[in-house]
Design brief:
Elements (H helix, E strand, L loop, with lengths): L15 H18 L5 H15 L5 H23 L2 E2 L2 H26 L8 H22 L3 E2 L5
Parallel strand pairs: 1-2
Helix pairs in contact: 1-3, 2-3, 4-5
């Protein structure tokens, strides 16, 4: 089964943000067309593409539809097939590093030094740990063929 092409009815050619999102979404669809995906995933993606192709609203509504559709597709790909876009884990673990590692390390440092103003020292440490671990997971996904050649903006 083949994934359908994206042919939205655009009302405004001058909306740069909408055109940028359409290009990004089109790259995602093109990359998915290159892969062998299970039929249920293909049907899901085709249903979303059909909704976008039939959309007659203004550009703001279409922009929201494209954003939510892209998010739905990426979520189901990660959930069912462990397929992610470039730098997915980098961004995810950047935030996780700040909250999971950075705050506790900063709290420990501030307790040891006896001054609460040192709590912010842990944030860059946690950020560095998170980014390095995210980059490792991205590299592993690439080596296993579980990464799509698309970087979201």
């Amino acid at each position: 089964m083949q994934i359908a092409n994206l042919n939205p009815r655009i009302t405004s050619e001058q909306d740069k943000l909408l055109n940028s999102k359409l290009d990004c979404f089109n790259k995602l669809i093109t990359e998915l067309q290159k892969r062998e995906l299970p039929n249920n995933i293909v049907l899901f993606v085709n249903n979303i593409i059909e909704q976008i192709n039939l959309h007659n609203g203004n550009s703001e509504v279409l922009l929201r539809v494209i954003r939510s559709s892209q998010s739905q597709i990426l979520n189901i790909l990660e959930e069912k097939l462990q397929i992610v876009v470039k730098r997915h884990y980098h961004y995810k673990w950047f935030v996780m590093g700040l909250s999971v590692f950075g705050l506790p390390v900063g709290a420990v440092i501030s307790l040891i030094l006896g001054n609460i103003s040192y709590i912010g020292i842990g944030l860059p440490i946690g950020m560095l740990i998170g980014v390095k671990f995210g980059d490792y997971l991205d590299k592993k996904a690439f080596e296993n063929g579980k990464q799509i050649d698309v970087e979201l903006t």
